[in-house]
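#struct-help
A.M.: can someone run this one for me? Single chain, 224 residues.
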Amino acid sequence: MHKIKSPTANQQLCAVTLLGNLVADPDIRYRANPVSAITEITLATSAKWLDKKTNTFKEWTSYHNVRVEGDLVEQTLLNAKKGEIILVHGYLSHIKSGGDTKNTALSIVHASFIQKFNKGYTQTINQILCSAQLSSVPKLITTQNNKNLAQVTIIINQQDYSVDKQCWLSHQVAIELQVWGKQAQYLVDNAKVNDSVMVEGKLSYLATADKKQFIEAKTVHLLS
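D.P.: on it. Structure tokens below:
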């Protein structure tokens, strides 16, 4: 019988919940020692807002890469098809893109729970709740519409128990945090490197070639 060691005391919270449509049929692979199913799927979530200049609603679709392993794959995704609705709960992790060490690590959602629903219309969900530490000085930007935007890099230390390896694994993720309005100004005026924060928001990405992921904050609590 293996003794399960407890996670370290400095672990942080990282909880991601997504409800969206499956972009393509899952490509399921199997690895050995022990034999275990693994796949990476893409979910689409959407958000609507009112463009006050044109008085029309606009929509932005976000695409989220999700890694699913082990029994979760066989219980839920063996017969999953493009367009079906998928509910995912998990945490942010990093994977290597490609097979060599020159490639950069990409942010991905590592699923700890997954459920499938039939095709149909539903309001999507895109939520992240995390605790983290600031690893850079917040930078304040004034947009063309005279709105304040603060940008800062945060570090999330997440731990998850691996059934295969019978131990706790650490996942350190560095990701950009964007904060708007009065909260942006408050963060710039009061926060410093290594301060702790609690963040509630959603996952998004820049409209650039590398699709760099970031957290768009709804609420930020400065804890130290």
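A.M.: thanks! Residues 181-190 form the longest helix (10 residues).
D.P.: also worth noting: The CA atoms of residues 2 and 223 lie 37 Å apart.
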